[in-house]
Amino acid sequence: MSEAGGVPDPAALGAVAAAAARPGRTGASGWLRGAGVAGAAVGVLAAGAAAGVAVERLTVGRGMRRKARLALDSTGPYGTLRGTPGTAVADDGTELYYEVEEAAPDARETGRPPLTVVFSHGYCLNQDSWHFQRAALRGAVRAVYWDQRSHGRSERGRGQRDGTGTVSIDLLGRDLKAVIEAAAPEGPLVLVGHSMGGMTQMALASQYPGLIEERVAAAAFVGTSSGRLAEVTFGLPALGINVVRRVLPGAFRLMTAQTELVEKGRRLSADLLAGVYRRYSFGSRDVDPGVARFAERLLESTPVDVVAEFYPAFAEHDKTAALDVFRGVPVLVLAGEKDLITPASHSEAMAAALPEAELVLVPGAGHLVMLEQPATVDARLADLLTAAEPGGAGRRDEAGARGEG
């Protein structure tokens, strides 16, 4: 497991720290030492967030805070949209869950296969993270939303479960191909990926360039990166990020070995983690409490051993060369200006590799830009879909793709 690079989940580290705070129940000195170091790491990561939580604790009791979270869970509409379910089978037999939203009859074109928009979500999320985009596009276009392996309603990766395979971004690219074959076997495609989902699209392109060239009419990369993740500091000073990187491998091993204990710690430390989630999800403090709580639920739903299982794949991710496959089609590269997980500079580097792409940096937004500034994301996606339709920008010829003539 690499110590440098990757996109760690600060909240998962918080769960390790919470478990460390209850040492009398572990009975293992090695676990205590490791968890204590991990606790120090999350202390560094959550310094700013924890301060806000501490102030809240002075004014709002724990019971009241818990009731507020339950009220938001019961009344919030986010993540409630559902489509027609289906299952794709990955090359290792893992069942991948997807849902299809069909276009309304008056929005369908006759005489040709429909354009399908395929949404791929990010690390520790699921398809419901596209809630606002799903609401905006309902009935207007055929869309497929899927859960990456071991996330959401998809099956736990069989290769990972039985120890015969590890998670890689290339594996996720093959998973996406399986979903496309099952849910959209014909017709033009628009690919939309957030964070790990954008990396998944790059992996698809690197392994199946013919599929991109033949069927993809447009693509959007939201809050993602084509590589060099070892340089991400998560908004920390050099000393802080060095501490975090040094302890991450051990912390993730503990999350795998002591899953039940760490999950319990995560539940017990909900107040602290709420601040961590908010800091690393959003760029602004002025976020609808219902949306913030929805983001928490998405992140909480990913088991901590899955968090640990996926982590090494990011250190190996380098797909800048794969971006070249998308030359000649409309491409949107969009990121939150204050993204601490996949900084806007990574989107700028992608746009430099795709000079014809539209680069949009959303002022004040963080990593979950599609939840924080949905109107902006929806509008840009609408423009991209217009360009992807027959008569839009479409795929340019080879000379045009190279900027010749």
Automatic annotation (TrEMBL):
Keywords: Hydrolase. It holds the Pfam family Abhydrolase_1. Residues 116-373 form the AB hydrolase-1 domain. It comes from the Bacteria. The keyword Membrane does not apply. GO terms for molecular function: hydrolase activity. InterPro entries: AB_hydrolase (IPR050471), AB_hydrolase_1 (IPR000073), AB_hydrolase_fold (IPR029058). This is Alpha/beta hydrolase. It comes from Streptomyces mobaraensis. The lineage of its organism: Bacteria, Bacillati, Actinomycetota, Actinomycetes, Kitasatosporales.
